[in-house]
Amino acid sequence: MPTPPLAGSTTGPTALRPLLDTVLTALTEGARRRDGPLPAGGPDTVTPHMRTTLTPLIPDQGTGAHHALATIVQALTEGAADPADPLCAAHLHTPPLALAAAADLAASALNPSMDSWDQAPAASTLEADTTAGLAAEIYPHHPAPDAVITTGGTEANQLALLLARERHGPVQTVTGTNAHHSTARAAWLLGLPEPLTVPAPTGTIDLTALHDTLTRNQGKAPLLVTATAGTTDTGQIDPLTDIADLCAQHGAELHIDAAYGGPLLFSPTHRHLVNGLDRADSVTFDLHKLGWQPASAGILAVPDRRHLHALHHHAPYLNADDDTEAGLPDLLGRSLRTTRRPDALKIAITLQALGRTGLADLIDRTCAAAHHLADLITRTPTLDLYDRPTISTVLFRPTAADDHTVATIRRTLLTRGHAVLGRTHAHGRLWFKATLLNPHTTPEDLRRLLDLVTHLTTELKEGSTLR
Asked: Quick one: which of 122, 169, 362, 440 has the most CB atoms within 10 Å?
């Protein structure tokens, strides 16, 4: 077998072109065979099919590039939960823009490693300017805001707690019961006290309880309040300005997890929902959610780039002092990770290609679809709506159904390959969770989703065995 070609240099594109054609054909055929938002049959069907395709995983003699790409990509596609299907609406699992996926190909082919300038000469500038520009969107009135690229909200939240600890020592985190699980996990990983948890009975932090908690603990330890702009369960947004006022009153710092809701800043129609972001000492912001980027594309933004100095790390083979003094940028202070992909590339290309108006249109379309779904549920006598959507998450359930019925319907939709709905508990009951992130979703798609739920509810009531 000849030596396989590489993806870079002037010869790489020529080698890639026929391989990409094979991949695109496999993606098309796999989606055609799946014919829906996810494969039918559940794990008992999907797992053996994938394992058969992979066997033997490492053959004595290779099958060749085109055969391996065609068979495995097709099998993966056939067995995928496809977020580009309007009925795949369970999680904050976005359908990536074709533009962003194409940009990711360039990142993979060039393979810059974002840990030293001599591995990423142009990419280091692209990342620095992109993160600074995004930070300026969050902190428009601060003179030197900055941000670092993360793998997503979990890493960004952990970094936020780490930076607060480095500024103030062992901080006491105060968080709502509606907060993402990564906040408590970050406190554990960093050796910080267990977070003080404030109730969120309506889905957002109770301000009176927060005031009382801060009053009781003021002066005992440095306090860090974490608020949420877009919860994973209901998509609700904490009262950010009021929380910022309480933090100022009690001398506490504020971190806002806006992994979901942060991109609302790009929409003139919806940016008021995240008023107060600029008052936080750090902000988590994901563009692989309401930004339509392939994972991962998260950031942690701070109002002053000096807040990031604690991340500096010296490794002479990557950032020797004399190289830094000579003007080579030191990239190790841009992350806790060493080898990193240039995830800023797809973000920068998307921002430039779509501009503010293009991003706003995607956001507005997606939020409008969520409100239309809520309207349809309200007009369906056999369904109950939890609440109007704040962003694009809609909770609903069959009227008078018990939690077992809701769970059974959801699993049946999955097993039959008809739809992907999430599940969450709110007000002591189990609800379907539709997280709409597809700007191409139509009213007909939403009606079809509700019809599937109502038909299965009837089927179950009539005593059929759902499989």
From this structure: 362
